[in-house]
Amino acid sequence: MPNLKKPTLDKDLDKLSYVEEAAGTLGRGLIAPGIALVFIVLCALAAGATMSDAPSTVLIVAAAAVGAYMALNIGANDVANNVGPAVGSRAMTLMTALIIAAVFESAGALIAGGDVVGTISKGIIDPGAVATPTVFMAAMMAALVSSALWINLATWVGAPVSTTHAIVGGVMGAGIAAAGFGAVNWPTMGSIAASWVISPFLGGAIAALFLAFIKTFIIYREDKIAAARRWVPVLIGVMAGAFASYLALKGLKKLVKIDMPTSLLIGVAAGLIVWLVVRPIIRRQSAGLENRNQSLRTLFAMPLVCSAALLSFAHGANDVANAVGPLAAIVHTAELGEVVSKVSIPLWVMAVGAFGISFGLLLFGPKIIHMVGQQITKLNPMRAYCVSLSAAITVIIASGLGLPVSSTHIAVGAVFGVGFFREWYTERSKRRLEYVNKQPNSSGNEVRPVRNREEQARRHLVRRAHFMTIIAAWIVTVPAAAALSGALYFVIVKLIA
To answer: Three-state SS for 78?
Structure first.
């Protein structure tokens, strides 16, 4: 029987199928950048239509495009810290987290976002040094472009960085380029630099303390379920109180002014109410659960979902104004033809920030979400709860002490704190070793062997490569954004002069 197979034709058909598959994969990879580009173009067109009668319309359109690009990058990098622990602990799926964060981030920005911002972000530069409109607009545009590019690069390498620090670096670099080193308020920069250390250490310490409490009073108890019925409502009440104070202090500044003592009273009241409400709920949820750690995780799932939503709302209310502040300053200066000490943020500018952050999160956020939630250290609902609670409490403490802190550094520092504490606790805790040695193995009549110290030392629970990458990114954010902004200033000032 003749051989009807045609090897050459088969090879050609295989090559065509491989090309089609590769083209399809490449096409899917270009969908997100394509949607982002459409969003940037739409924002530029909307700015042109809204500000068509204003002087320097072309500059405003360009600034709106850059502002939209900045907002996309903030969504891709900064917002992921709010939902990463909940996703990494499997308290909710990635898609659920993306939707919750996008909705609450936008709501926080549009409902409670700050409506007034200093034209020189956080008093970093002397306003008199950039008093002319051309110099000022060039400085703000350079700061916006440099910070957006730096955050984009950080997202690409998988490093969560502080948006505020990137903008601060951009404003500082442009100010130095425009008026020299004497224009910079170095005490303010010193306090910001101090926050690089304060934020992650404070966040990590608080998260580690709560994890130590959970391990001591719930996990390593003979009757875990009884211990959970007693302490989980208390922990949820503490979380509710912390978030109530956090939102009152930082998230609702536009709607109502609340001082620290009042916010703490609100937190105490909210915590007591929630504690009373959840006690019977936890009792019902824990009924019939097996006496093991896996059962405990179900009791922390819903608080994590709520914390992700509240953190996203507070971030939108508190940080979006910082992100679009340079854009608002450019629009205001171009419109008035002069530099003023305070500018109001127009609704369309706030919308660019709010929706840009949401789109950035949906299109590009999963990479940083996976980094924070899964790749630094393994998280379960109890550990993720400690991270979320630490974020709220650290902001309250820092606000009371007047310390500038970064929400990104707090959240990631809390993840580090949980991981490093577990390394220490696993190796050195007498309570844990006593508990483990009392547990029978599968045969039911022998105790588990305790790992020797050398073997335990090799079991690093925090990935050192990710740790070093993130720390390096934190250290270089301000100087890198400053250097890039200073170089861009000289280009932009010539273009708009």
So the answer is: coil
Assigned token pair, 435: 């508990």
104 Cβ partners below 8 Å, 6+ apart? 309, 310, 312, 313, 316
Residues in Cβ contact with 252 at an 8 Å cutoff, skipping those fewer than 6 apart: 112, 258, 317
The structure tokens listed for 496 are: 């708009």
Domain of residue 343, residue span: 38-428+460-496
Q: Give me Rg for the CA atoms of the chain.
A: 26
CA-to-CA distance for 148 and 240, rounded, in angstroms?
34
Distance separating alpha carbons of residues 28 and 425, to the nearest angstrom: 44
Query: For 300-358, what is each residue's pLDDT tens digit?
Result: 888 888 888 888 887 787 677 666 788 888 888 887 777 766 777 788 888 888 889 88
* Dihedral angle of Cα 324, 307, 248, 400, to the nearest 10 degrees: -90
Distance separating alpha carbons of residues 198 and 78, to the nearest angstrom? 18
In angstroms, rounded to a whole number, what is the distance separating the alpha carbons of residues 489 and 146? Answer: 10
Residue 200 lies in a domain: yes
* CA–CA gap between residue 468 and residue 416 (Å, rounded): 11
Residue found by looking up tokens 């009549």 in the block: 445
Run of H or E residues at 492: helix 464-496
Whether 301 contacts 381, CB under 8 Å: yes
Which tokens belong to 265? Answer: 């009273």
Q: Is residue 391 part of a domain?
A: yes
- Is 28 among the domain residues? no
Count of domains for the chain: 1
C-alpha atoms less than 13 angstroms from C-alpha of 290 in its C-beta half-sphere: 4
Task: Give domain status of residue 451, yes or no.
Answer: no
pTM assigned to the model: 0.82
Encode pLDDT of 46-71 as tens digits.
988 888 777 778 888 999 999 999 99
In which element (H, E) is residue 345 found? none
Side chain identity, residue 417: G
